[in-house]
Amino acid sequence: MSGPAKRLLVATGNAGKVGELKRLLADADWQIICLKDLALLWQREELGGLPPLTGSRQFIEAEISRRYAQLEEKMAETGATFEENAIIKAKGAAEFTGFLTLADDSGLEVDYLGGAPGVYSARYAGPGKDEGACNELLLQNMKAAAPDRRQARFKAAVALASPQGELYITEGVCQGSIGFAPQGEGGFGYDPLFVLPEGTKTMAQLTMAEKNEISHRGEALKKILPILKNYSQNNALDL
Q1: Are 21 and 225 spatial neighbours (Cβ–Cβ below 8 Å)?
Q2: Which range marks the domain in which residue 169 is found?
Q3: pTM of the model as a whole
Q4: Active site annotation includes 105
Q5: Of 83, 79, 131, 123, whose CA–CA distance to 103 is shortest?
Q6: What is the CA 5 to chain-centroid distance, rounded?
Q7: Residue 2 resides in a domain
Q8: Mean pLDDT of 142-170
Q9: What is the pLDDT of residue 3?
C-alpha cells in the first residue's frame, strides 16, 4: 500500500487484548490505534466531526474526559450476546471517531455454571474487581464440580464497522475445561484456569504464537483479515 498507512481503531482499553490484537493483525497493513491513543489525536486533528482541541490545559483535559464519557456511553455493553456487544462497540466507536473500527466481545462459558460467566466474564466478581478476583470466584463456584463436569469454552465475536455503516462479524471458539488451580504466567483473564483439550497445559502456559494459533479471538480475527486487506485496497468492505 502506498502513501500513509490507513488507521484501524481497536476499540478496547484492555492492554493484554490490545497487545494480542496487534500481534494478530501485524501483517494486515494497518496502523493500529486503541482507545487510549484518542486523547492525543483529539488534540491534533478533527475526528468524527469533532474539531481538534485547543485552549488551556485545564479545558483540554476536561474536554478529553467529556469525549471519553460520550464514547463510553455509545460503546456500553448492553447486549445479551458476545456478537451484540461487539457490534455495539464497533459501530459506536466508528460513528464517534470516524475510524474504521474493530471491536470484540469475548468470554468464558462453563457448562457446570449454565454458561456463566458468559457476557459478564470481565465483571464476574463485581464492579471494580480485577482478574484475580474473577478467577477466585470461578474456582469457588466450581468447587463441587467433578473432573468430568468441568467442560468450558472461550467464545469471541469480532465486529468490523465503518463510519458509513458497513458491518462485518466473525466468531471463534476454543474448547477446554476449568482446572483446579491457576497454572502459567502468560495470557490474561481466565487463561491460567483454562485447560486445553489435551489436558496438559492451560492457555496461560502457551507462548503468544501458540495461543494465537488456537485462541477463540485468533480464530475470529483470521476470518476478518481478508476483509481488512480488501478494505485497504478498495476503501470499502466487500460484503
Answers
A1: no
A2: 7-234
A3: 0.86
A4: yes
A5: 83
A6: 22
A7: no
A8: 96
A9: 43
pLDDT digit string, tens, across residues 95-107? 999 999 999 999 9
| Tally of domains within the chain | 1
Give yes or no for a contact between 28 and 53, defined as CB atoms under 8 angstroms apart.
no
Residue 87 sits in a domain of what CATH number?
3.90.950.10
Residue at 137 is within a domain: yes
Given the residues 29, 37, 105, 130, the one annotated as active site: 105
Q: Quick check: 65 pLDDT over 50?
A: yes
Q: Which residues 6+ apart lie within 8 Å of 96 measured at CB? A: 48, 70, 71, 74
Determine the pLDDT at residue 237. 45
Sheet holding 167-178, edge to edge: 31-34, 7-10, 100-110, 151-161, 167-178, 194-195
Is 229 a domain residue?
Answer: yes
pLDDT band for 126, please (50, 70, 90 cuts): very high
Tally DSSP H helices, then E strands, for the chain. Answer: 7, 6
CB 156 within 8 A of CB 89: no
pLDDT at 206 over 80: yes
Phi, psi of 238 (to 5 degrees): -90, 95
* Cell numbers at 120, concatenated: 459478564
